[in-house]
Amino acid sequence: MVFNELKIIEIKAKCDNLEPIRETLKNENSDFEGVDYQTDTYFKVKKGRLKLREGNIENNLIFCDRENICEPKRSEVILIPVEKGTGLKRILTTANGILTVVEKKREIYFIDNIKIHIDSVKQLGSFIEIEAIERAGYTGLGNLSKQCELYMKKSGINNSDLVGCSYSDMIMFGSGKTFAGA
Fold first, then answer.
1. What is the tens place of the pLDDT at every residue in 125-152?
2. Number of domains in the chain
3. pTM of the entire structure?
4. Does a structural domain hold residue 179?
5. Which of 53, 65, 101, 148 could be stapled to 132 by a disulfide with Cβ–Cβ 3.0 to 4.6 Å?
6. Looking at the domain assignment, is residue 120 inside a domain?
7. Which domain holds residue 30?
8. pLDDT (tens digit, 9 = 90+) per residue, 61-81?
9. 61 occurs within a structural domain
10. Any idea what the CATH number is for the domain that residue 151 is in?
11. CA nearest 78: which of 117, 119, 45?
12. Residue 2 pLDDT greater than 90, yes or no
């Protein structure tokens, strides 16, 4: 089984006007991967977040550990591609229990090592996520931070737009800016 350990600098921002972002992505000659309808099932764990993503493009088991802060933040991610319908959800549900479920429509774009999501999240609204992913030729957290901040600026995202927590936190606790737990 192939898995990836990723180092990422990322942001999430509330964004009600998505057209300027789509225009920026077009002007930057981004690669549009498509629209994915995703269901993320979060499981109860002692540390970090464990979710099973089921979509028509992306299907992964993902463990993520990051701080809940309203600024570009470092994420340690372990990602394993999985096949739909393998019974993995049943095993994880039985072993750990479900914490919450997040349903979203996600537009997926790439610019080199930058992955940009435009998300429409059930119960929450519209968001943009920018992930600067460490890859050959794109290394060092300082460089990744600069890339993330550059695409924030190009997308018209201000620090006041940033959200410090995950969609799972917002669904469970409300749509505030930061949360200490979960």
1. 999 999 999 988 778 889 999 999 999 9
2. 1
3. 0.91
4. no
5. 148
6. yes
7. 4-171
8. 999 999 999 999 999 999 999
9. yes
10. 2.40.320.10
11. 45
12. no
